[in-house]
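Reopening this one. Same input as before:
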Amino acid sequence: MPNHDQPVETEIKLRLPAAAFDTLSHHALMENATPDQRHEITTYFDTPDLDLARHGFHLRIRRSGTHRLQTLKTADGHAVAKQRGEWEQPVETDTPDLAILADTPAAAALRDIGAERLQPAFTTDIHRTARLLHGEGDATIEAAFDRGVIIAGNRSEPVSELELELKQGDVAALYQLAVALAAAAPMTLEPASKAERGLRLRSGVPPTAVKADDVAFAADLPASAAFAAIIRAILRHIITNLAPARFGDVGGLHQLRVAIRRMRAALRLFRPLLHQQAADRFDTELRRVGQVFGAVRDWDVFLHETIPAAEANAAERPWFELLRTQSEIRRSTARQDLLSELDGPGFTGLILGLAGWSEDGERDPAVLGDDRLRHPMSDLAPGLMEPMSRKVAKRGRRLDAASREALHALRKAIKRLRYGLEFIAPLYPHRRVKPAVDACKTLQELLGQVNDAAVTPELAARLVDGRPELLPGVAALASWAEQRGRKAHRRVPKAWRRLQHADGFWN
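Same output, byte for byte:
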């Protein structure tokens, strides 16, 4: 995130279908704002190897009529409302004036990569209609409707989007406006800037999965601000993996599913302090979205992990190949449901709602719930963690006699405990947090293998309907999964004792 000594751009970007432009242009919030229409042709500059982007900068010259504006931006902030450093100055020509960048953070990078190597990397040709809107308090927001194209060599990508840029005021007003407009017309979060999409077109390299960042906040921060920091971190995790998931990256979908689980765990951790109705509604929607993601993820694991592992340890490869073919069909259907979800109003509203709720709650804890949210997070963390720990202890009784359902419930409780530990990690020494997190991870993995012993045959059995020739493959896979599950089950008691030893350090 940019530091406070540099100019900052804060914006939300949303993709729109063509029909939504007219609907939103006549929205009540737009009625009294005079539209400013411009045709903007923008050239982005970088080295042939895109070194400037690798240093975290985008440099462009935008031409509108006879006016030219040179802009340097830091790389995307990967948040719902992106915050990026931005330096703008008028220029006279279509080539960058590097002298005016001497006092910017890019100066050192330009020296390192050789400024003389800069050349046009890609262009955008955009028709923009902008309106200046007034939000809550003193907030001023520019709403810009953009239609056009990004061009990189012989590749191109259409642009049809709405940019909401905060010019003045609190970021919560930006989310409030986005939520209001999203309720009026279909729109989808656009995780990438035009610069990022242009670079992707230029390189031809698809986006890849990104793991979650560590949560960071000061120990004396009010709990409301710590909650907002945690939600922001999880939302970044979601945003960075939207494009990989859309492009079909298996890891991107997995990370999206993890992020949804972490969000539910954050709501569970803070539940005693939150408005119950709001928290429950968010959790219900997160669970619904998670089920859509989970349907695709189950087939991803089946195809890319389970079958290859089983093939490596068995002789029934022809049967497994038949299962692979049929499961590809099932995965394709589930993936279409996933894309419909990502592009639907429910998912967009959920992300905007969570972002706006947490940001507004940081400013006014009463928006979130209990007045104790004003207290330091360090004072409240032990009491918030204890219910999660007790739940794990309860679920872990009599492991030897536990049913599959009981072990599955224990696994879910351990996941929530692990995420809770990661959320409160900034409050405690790393040497105290790490053993407990590692113990949770080990148990998660073992219990996951135990659960897979039952889930794998069930998935395989779904493929058999009307296809009896698949039965030998299902039987072979079930045998392999059962053996693997038994091996994992034998290791559970030792891993459980390790967790018991490390748990409860916050007291």
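So the earlier flakiness isn't reproducible anymore. For the record, The chain is about 55% helix and 20% strand.
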